[in-house]
Structures are given as C-alpha cells and as structure tokens.
Amino acid sequence: MTPAVSVTAPQFTQRWDEVVEAAQLAESLGFSGLFVFDHLVPIGEPPRPVFEMAAALGAIAAGTTTLRVGTLVMRVPLRGELVSERIAATVAAIAPGRFVLGLGAGDKLSGDEARRFGLSTGSLQARVGAVDGLVASMAESQPDIPVWVGGSHPTILDVIRRRRAGWNGWGITAERFAEVAATIPGPTTWGGPVVLGRDRKEAAALVGERRSLAGDPDRVAAGLAEYLEAGAAEIVVSIIPNRPERWRFFAEEVIPRLREWSIGDR
C-alpha cells in the first residue's frame, strides 16, 4: 500500500497556468492531494507575487477530477468563521469527496502580513476561539469534510483533542510529532519543506540556510518514513524548488522507496 503523500501548490508565481498545470501534473503522478497556503504576501518576501488561497483552491478543484485538494492552513481569524465556512462549502461542492479543510489560528510569522493589509491579529485566545468555533460548526453543518487543525501550541492542541479533529504538525521533528500524535484522538498528519537533490551534494547546495528535510532520495525517504512510523496518516511535502521537474523526480524516486517501506518489515 502506497503511503498518502501530497504536495503544496506553487502559488508564488505570476503565471496562473503554472498553478493549474501543476495540479494536473500532481494528479497524473499519483500524489494523494494538493494543498494551498493562506498568505496574502509570501512570509519574509513581500515583493514576490502570490495567488490568494480561496480563488486558487476553487480553480484547482475545478481543474482536477481525482486529486484531493485542501488548505494548509486556512487562517480562520483572517476571514472569520462564517466566511471560512462558506469557502469550505463552495470548494466541497466543486470537488465532492475530495476536499480537506486545514485550519489555523495564525502565528507570529503572519503578523507582518496582517499589518500590511490593516488587519488585526487579535489575541491568542480570540484566534484559537475562532478556530474552535469553526471546527464545532463544521462538525454539525458539514460532517463529511475532513478537518485538520495545524499548530502545536497547548491551547490549539486542547481544541484538537476536545473536538476530536485531525492534526497537522508542520515542520516539527519526528520525535516531537510522535510525542504529540500519541495524545491526539483524531487522524494525525505531517507537513513541511523538503529539499530533494539527485545526490547529497546537490541537496546541500539547494538547502542553503533553510531548515528542511534535505538530502538525496534515500535520505528524504528515510526521513519521511520516520513520520509515518510515528503515526502520520499522510505527509504533505513542500518541495524546494517547487517546480514540475522536482515533483516528477520525487514521484519517481521517493514515493517508490516509501512504498517499499510500507510493505516491508517495520
């Protein structure tokens, strides 16, 4: 059985055709899903272009037929509970049975972005409360939509446990992932940046100062297998550089290694 492996969309571009074509490529390569970020400007690089989450997600959903699509993560405080719920309902109607709603409360990294658009970041209590409210309303109004909540702050983990929602641990170590996953009653998933080189030398040149899982196919597959071993039902990779040829290389070289891991002795 092939482990569920998804990728993040190449939103940071000025060419819309690249985004839709990437979604169709992900579908053809056998990735489980494609997830979009929720940023109005790229973190740390405001001059770079970016396609807005909700609009991008709708087009990706309409341009694919079998690929799961989702948010990783939609920041509930940015739009409010009601608008966020309507976005979820719309995408679910476009892609019935294929939508995953990832939710988040925002963090310090998104503070500059909020200020640029005159948006209030709000207190931690208010932001987590917004996530809590949406998780509860989704369970009543759209119970068939899988809901993942991102974050590792104790208050957001309390929401996940109490609401029995799914959890996504973005960018954390396998050891920390295993520790938290053991306390989560719902499904657990991992996401994070992955730098894949054809060999260790190329991976080292690509990684630069980024804190990422990096290496050749053997190293990357082994690193991802640690999260699967720790209980991840799915992994979502943000491949660096986020280009079609890198996706194809990942699908050809890493996914088969993960498949071998899943059917081998563990």
Q: What is the secondary structure topology, with strand pairs?
A:
Elements: E1 4-8, H1 16-29, E2 33-36, H2 53-62, E3 68-71, E4 74-75, H3 76-79, H4 81-94, E5 99-104, H5 111-116, H6 124-141, E6 147-150, H7 154-163, E7 166-170, H8 174-181, E8 188-196, H9 200-207, E9 213-215, H10 217-229, E10 234-240, H11 244-253, H12 255-263
Parallel strand pairs: 1-2, 1-10, 2-3, 3-5, 4-5, 5-6, 6-7, 7-8, 8-9, 8-10
Helix pairs in contact: 1-11, 2-4, 4-6, 6-7, 10-12
Taking the alpha carbons of the first and last residues, their distance comes to: 14 Å
Number of strands: 10
- Overall outline: globular
The order of strands across the largest sheet is 1-2-3-5-6-7-8-10
The CATH H-level homologous superfamily: Luciferase-like domain
**CATH C-level label:** Alpha Beta
* H/E element sequence: EHEHEEHHEHHEHEHEHEHEHH
Kindly report the average pLDDT value. 92
Count the helices. How many? 12
Radius of gyration: 18 Å
Structure characterization notes:
By secondary structure, this protein is of the alpha/beta class. The chain has one domain: Luciferase-like domain (TIM Barrel, Alpha-Beta Barrel). The chain has 12 helices and 10 strands. The chain has an 8-stranded parallel β-barrel with strand order 1-2-3-5-6-7-8-10, surrounded by 8 helices. α2 runs parallel beside α4. It starts with a strand and ends with a helix.
